[in-house]
């Protein structure tokens, strides 16, 4: 029995070494993926902002002066850069540089909130597949949260600049993505934009009463990946690594159960005696 337990221990040790190698491969793949995603997010944010300004609210955009348009475009680029830096914080140790300014214009840092880091998902003991899988899931959640914050901050930016209607309540912007459940009708349109018709109960908050059409930025990971061949390829690589990790995780749990059974059998025999 001691030999059986020793062999199981050797199998577990070998599995841990393999899992460590998979962990390094997964972290490397995510570093590349998040760097590519940062570039893609910046591009898609600019495209979504372009469509919103030229197709969603062209009259409001035309009311801006040349200087105001340039300030808005600069602020959008800055917001995309902040998001790209945030995406890399969770893989690389270097932190994004502080950016800001005291100017009272559309580039003011007072409403650029992405420079407040989201809590970092710590890299776990890489020999434990369960902890590694938990870390990976948390990383995906953080990525989605960054896109959500970026969309929200971009909408506030466009509203303060005068493109989105100023009388549109902020809670409606914040809840725009969830509004499609019951009280809103999603309309077709460009990617990474919400084109909704929403029924507002408190009609006095808006110039128009009843049904109100809203176009707002809503960056979606699936649409961003679909539009970028490199990003899609890197996502497939991550999926392939996760398939290997899941297989190793099942084997890891199986071996731990075998060891527990073997140790329990040995403990039973060591304590058993005939009457």
Provide the fold topology.
Elements: H1 2-56, H2 58-62, H3 66-89, H4 129-161, H5 170-174, E1 184-186, E2 193-199, E3 211-217, H6 221-226, H7 229-271
Question: Any overview of this molecule?
Answer:
- Strand 1 (184-186) and strand 2 (193-199) form a beta hairpin.
- The protein has a three-stranded antiparallel β-sheet with strand order 1-2-3.
- It has helices at 2-56, 58-62, 66-89, 129-161, 170-174, 221-226, 229-271; strands spanning 184-186, 193-199, 211-217.
- It starts with a helix and ends with a helix.
- The chain is built from seven helices and three strands; from the N terminus they run H-H-H-H-H-E-E-E-H-H.
- Residues 94-113 and 177-186 have low confidence and may be disordered.
- By secondary structure, it is mostly helical.
Structural class: mainly alpha
Radius of gyration: 26 Å
Shape: elongated
Major sheet characteristics: 3 strands, antiparallel
DSSP E strands, number: 3
Entry keywords:
7 helices, 6% strand, 3 strands, elongated, 62% helix, 275 residues, mainly alpha
Short structural summary:
This protein has 7 helices and 3 strands. With 275 residues, the protein is mainly alpha-helical.
């Amino acid at each position: 029995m001691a030999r059986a337990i020793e062999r199981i221990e050797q199998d577990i040790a070998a599995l841990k070494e393999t899992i460590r190698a998979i962990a390094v491969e997964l972290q490397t793949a995510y570093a590349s993926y998040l760097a590519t995603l940062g570039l893609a997010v910046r591009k898609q944010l600019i495209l979504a902002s372009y469509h919103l300004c030229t197709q969603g609210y062209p009259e409001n955009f035309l009311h801006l002066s040349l200087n105001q348009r340039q300030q808005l475009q600069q602020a959008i680029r800055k917001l995309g850069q902040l998001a790209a830096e945030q995406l890399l914080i969770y893989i690389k140790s270097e932190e994004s540089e502080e950016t800001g300014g005291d100017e009272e214009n559309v580039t003011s840092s007072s409403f650029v909130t992405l420079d407040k880091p989201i809590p970092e998902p710590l890299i776990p003991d890489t020999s434990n597949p369960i902890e590694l899988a938990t870390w990976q899931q948390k990383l995906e959640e953080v990525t989605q949260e960054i896109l959500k914050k970026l969309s929200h901050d971009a909408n506030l930016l466009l509203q303060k600049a005068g493109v989105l209607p100023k009388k549109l309540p902020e809670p409606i912007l914040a809840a725009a993505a969830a509004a499609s459940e019951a009280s809103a009708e999603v309309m077709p349109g460009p990617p990474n934009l919400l084109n909704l018709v929403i029924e507002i109960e408190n009609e006095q908050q808006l110039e128009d009463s009843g049904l109100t059409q809203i176009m707002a930025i809503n960056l979606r990971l699936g649409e961003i990946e679909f539009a970028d061949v490199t990003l899609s390829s890197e996502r497939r690589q991550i999926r392939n690594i996760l398939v290997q990790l899941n297989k190793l995780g099942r084997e890891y749990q199986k071996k731990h159960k075998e060891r527990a059974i073997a140790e329990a059998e040995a403990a039973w025999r060591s304590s058993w005696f005939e009457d």
